Amino acid sequence: MTLQVLDVYKAFGPVRAVQGVSFTVPAGRVCGLLGSNGAGKTTTMRMIMRIFLPDRGEIQWKGRPVTDAIRSTFGYLPEERGLYPKMQVREQLIYLTQLKGLSHAEAARQVDRWIERLELGEYALRRVEQLSKGNQQKVQFAAAAASRPELCILDEPFTGLDPMNTLVMEQAFRTLAREGTTILFSSHNMDQVEALCDDVVLLHRSRVVLAGTLREVKRAARRQTVRLRVDSGDYSFLREFPGIRTQSAAGGAVEVAVPDTLDPNQLLARAMSAGTVTEYSLGEPSLREIYIEKVGGADA
User: Fold this and answer.
1) Which whole number is the average pLDDT over 84-90?
2) Which of the residues 173, 203, 242, 292 could staple to 39 if both were Cys, CB 3.0 to 4.6 A apart?
3) Domain co-membership, 132 together with 156
4) ABC transporter domain: from which residue to which, for each copy (predicted)?
C-alpha cells in the first residue's frame, strides 16, 4: 500500500510549479511534505488527488497508476475548505462518508466516533457556517478520516487552530495513524512535523531537495547540536572554533551547530574555562535547522 510519486512535472503557463518530483510514502507511515509558499506542496497533493493531472511522470498507489476510481477511496483535506455551509455538521459528515461507499449505519457510527475524538459534540447539529474557522477545520478533518481510508492527503490540516484545538487535532491525527492509515500532510510547522512524522520530503523551488526517514535526514546532516549557557553571557570564545554556527536560544543560552570533525567536549572544556557553565546538552539537529541549511533562513 505504498504511494509513489514518480518524476512528476506540472506547469501553469510559464510557471513551473513542480519539476521532477519523486518520493515514496510507505504503507502505514506518516510523511510530512515541507516547503515554503510556492514550493509545490499543494500542486503535488492536487496531482495525487487528480484535481490536476501531471504534464509528465506518474503517481501510483499499490503499484498501480492512480485513477479516478482509486482516488475516490482516498481521504482528502484541501487547502481551502470544501464543506457545505448550510448543512448541519453531523448530517453533512454522514453524507460525505456515504459517498465513499459506507452504509448509512456504518457512516453514522464512524462519524460519531470522529465527532467525539475531535470534541465536536456540541456542534454536531449546528450548520457549518455557525462554527469558528478552527472548528470548521476539525469538521474537514473528520470528513477526510471517517471513511477509514487507506491513504489520507491532508493539506495544512492544522491551519487556523488555536493551541487547544491543535492539541485535540494532533491526538486525532495520531489515532488515525495508529489505525493504519497512510498519511501525507503538508505543514510549515517544523516542530509539529518532527513530532508527528516518520518520513519527510522537503520541496524548494518546485524540486525535492531532501527526502527520507526522519532518522536518515538527521544522520545525513553529519553534525550535532550543543545547547550551552554560561553565566557571564560572553560567548566570544566560540570564535576560536572554525566551522561552527551559533544562534541565540531562550534564557540567554546559545545553540551551536557542531560539525562531525569537532569533538563537542572541546567546546565544553573551553566554556568551563570561560565561566560557570549553567547548561549543557548535546543532541541531533532539529528539522528546523536542517531546513534552514537546505533552503536558507529567508524561507524558514
Assistant:
1) 96
2) 203
3) yes
4) 3-230
- Strand arrangement, sheet containing 254-259: 245-248, 254-259, 223-230, 277-283
Which residue among 161, 188, 218 closes a domain? Answer: 218
Question: Would you say residue 13 lies in a domain?
Answer: yes
Per-residue confidence (pLDDT) for residue 1, from 0 to 100: 63
Q: If pLDDT is split at 50, 70 and 90, which confidence band does 286 have?
A: confident
Spatial contact of 225 and 283, defined as CB atoms under 8 Å apart: yes
pLDDT at 199: 96
Identify the pLDDT of residue 298.
46
> Where is the domain boundary, 198, 218, 238?
218
The answer to whether residue 161 sits within a structural domain is yes
DSSP bridge partners of 33: 186, 201
Please list, residue by residue across 260-269, b when 16 or more beta carbons sit within 10 angstroms of its beta carbon and e when fewer do: eebebeebee
280 within domain boundaries: yes
Sort 275 into a burial class: Cβ within 10 Å, 0-12 / 13-18 / 19+: middle
Whole-angstrom distance, CA of residue 231 vs CA of residue 95:
62
Range of 157's domain? 2-218
Cell numbers found for residue 279: 547548561
Lowest mean pLDDT among 176-185, 237-246, 290-299: 290-299
Q: Is 179 within a domain? A: yes
Residues 83 and 201 in one domain: yes
pLDDT tens per residue, range 256-275:
888 878 888 888 899 898 88
213 and 229 in a single domain? The answer is: no
Number of structural domains in the chain: 2
- CA gap 146, 176 in Å, rounded: 9
Whole-Å CA distances, 203 to 20, 30, 34, 53: 11, 17, 6, 19
Alpha carbon separation from 253 to 75, 238, 244, 247, 298 (Å, rounded): 44, 13, 16, 9, 23
